[in-house]
Amino acid sequence: MMQHDRANEAWVNGSLRLPLENSPDAILLLDSILHQMSDAVIVADKQYRFVVFNPAAERMFGVGATTVKAEGWARTYGLYLPDQVTPFPPDDLPLARSIRGEEVDNLEMFVRHDKSPDGVWIRVNGRPLRDVAGELAGGVIVCRDISESRKEDAFRAGQGRVLEMIARGATLQEVLASLVTLIEAQSEDMLCSVVELSEDGKHIRHGAAPSLPEVYVQAVNGAPIGPKNGSCGTAMFLGKQVIVTDMLTDPLWEDYVELAKLSGLRACWSTPIYSGSGKVLGSFAMYYREPKTPSGTEARLTEVATHIAGIAIEHQRAENELRAREEQLRVTQAELAHVARVSTMGELAASIAHEVNQPLGAIVGNADICLRWLEQPDPDLVQLREALADISSDGHRASQVIKRIRSLVKKHVPDKLPLDFNDVAREVVELINHEAQRTQVTVRSELAATLPSVAADRVQLQQVLINLVMNAIDAMNETEPAKRELLLTTSRSERGVLAAVSDRGVGIDSASMEQIFKAFHTTKSGGMGMGLAISRSIIESHGGKLWAESNENGGATFKFTLPALEGETQ
Q1: What is the dihedral of CA 70, 76, 77, 80, to 10 degrees?
Q2: What angle do CA 185, 186, 190 make, to 5 degrees?
Q3: Number of structural domains found in the chain
Q4: Is 284 helix (H, G, I), strand (E, B) or coil?
Q5: Cα–Cα nearest to 140, from 152, 120, 153, 126
Q6: What pLDDT does residue 246 have?
């Protein structure tokens, strides 16, 4: 073999020259080398006549040396460009270029003829051929069959594409179907499948089998695993490879013989798919329509298939577990948010009572007046109508207050709908107005004339704004009453809406600027320390950002952004 490689290297590098006169021994040696070489070697003189056409060349190109001129070489020997369709141009053929004195390196060509209908890929190196005087005497090319290496390259590229699908988040069904198709492409008569082992570890679950009969796929899906349950069911039960060379006679297929006959399948080799921790996740199977024994060439395909399938299944299950945990976290966060809202409503109990008692008192007063008027012999109907209208108005007012309170304290599933954030701000101001009056805080609001709509949950945004406003009111407990001022503003931001709640309270030192947003951090004696943490999580879940800043003249400002609804213009 080393002798052949040196000979090949000599031809490629052009160091082997053909003198016009050679000794018989040298000719015999050269002829022996050419006959033993696995690479095709072709030599032609300056008149494009073949001088050497070794046996490997005859096998590669389907026919030996002919008298056909260079213009007919592509047609005679089935030479095509890499597109596999266009005949190779005569002037660009590597042998023609070598005869003209050019050097050709690693040129790839596709060859297809009657003896090789599927075609072969070859890599060609060519060098000018010179006589003993150094004059150009012809050209020589050495051609190597690279079909297997190209097939291997394509196989590796296919593996890369499947792994990329996993990383990209393609569905498990798509990934496994692509994997099975890739493996099947490596053999003409092989059919493949991937099945999963159910989470309870007892049943087969269909994964991918694009080439198997549908009747077979449906029958296997959901079947139990066990020590005598076909190839896949047994392989997963035992945790080891199961080779069935004839499904019609093997005891493992006794209960499934009719299914095998109906499906036209005879051989099935199944190999377990393992997780990184060694847990059985499923199995990969190779099927054949005739009885068949493994030749050994299938081992690498099986290794690749089970490895990638294991990655895909484990990745999918990890994603499912992560989604389940995220859902549980969402539920927990919703529960905490509800508790925080109820707690805030407790702080606003006095204000809520006033908001409800005021219209109820007016209703009772107007009702008493109406009753007295009705006792008169000739009641004034106009006055009665006005009093009843006031009762109706106050009733609606009380109803709206109760409705807002109920929406805040009841449990609900967050629902992001288009809304005008200014409406939310106005509702919050109305709700906390009496609390502000009670604590001698002046509330000012400066709302933008127009704002882009946002996709948000109204109750959650109310909760955030109420929490920030109540914190601002609490922060001014030690501030002189005349200086207690709370400012609520809304404006456009680069991406949507910017809201800010500013106070003239004690302020926040820089060291605590982020600490205040951590769970269970509180400066209130009776506080839970969850308000700001929940508020930040709500804003971030809406795609926004919540932060705090110190004011130059004392106090603090809490700001948050919300992205505009898609399609809204700034």
Answers
A1: 80
A2: 80
A3: 3
A4: strand
A5: 126
A6: 96
pLDDT digits (tens, 9 = 90+) for 187-202: 889 999 999 999 889 9
The domain in which residue 10 lies consists of 2-145
Tokens of 420: 């005008």
Residues 29 and 121 in one domain: yes
Q: Residue 560: which pLDDT band, with cuts at 50, 70 and 90?
A: very high
Cα gap 14→543, rounded to integer Å? 68
Residues 6+ apart with CB under 8 A from 11: 41, 125, 127, 140, 142
The CATH code of the domain that includes 123 is 3.30.450.20
Q: For 314-360, how does the pLDDT look when each residue is reduced to its tens digit (9 = 90+)?
A: 999 989 888 888 777 666 566 655 555 555 555 555 555 555 656 66
Answer whether residue 344 is part of any domain. Answer: no
Q: How far apart are CA 271 and CA 309, in angstroms?
A: 11
Tokens of residue 294, six digits: 């493994």
Phi then psi for residue 290, to 5 deg, are -130, 155
19-28, 198-207, 386-395: which has the minimum mean pLDDT? Answer: 19-28
Q: Which of 112, 145, 178 is the last residue of a domain?
A: 145
Asked whether the beta carbons of 224 and 203 are under 8 A apart, the reply is yes
Q: How far apart are CA 269 and CA 420, in angstroms?
A: 63
Please write the tens of the pLDDT for every residue from 36-83: 888 999 999 999 999 999 999 999 999 999 999 889 999 999 999 999
CATH number at residue 441: 3.30.565.10
Q: What is the CA radius of gyration of the chain?
A: 42
Written as one letter, the residue type at 302 is T
Query: 251 and 194, same structural domain?
Result: yes
Q: Please indicate, yes or no, whether residues 165 and 101 belong to a single structural domain of this protein.
A: no
What are the angstrom distances between the C-alpha of 142 and each of 8, 15, 54, 245, 273? 7, 13, 10, 43, 44
* CA 460-439-424 angle, 5° bins: 25
What values do phi and psi take at 252, rounded to 5? -65, -20
Q: How much is the pLDDT for 19?
A: 46
Do residues 280 and 197 touch, judged by C-beta distance below 8 A? yes
pTM above 0.85, yes or no: no
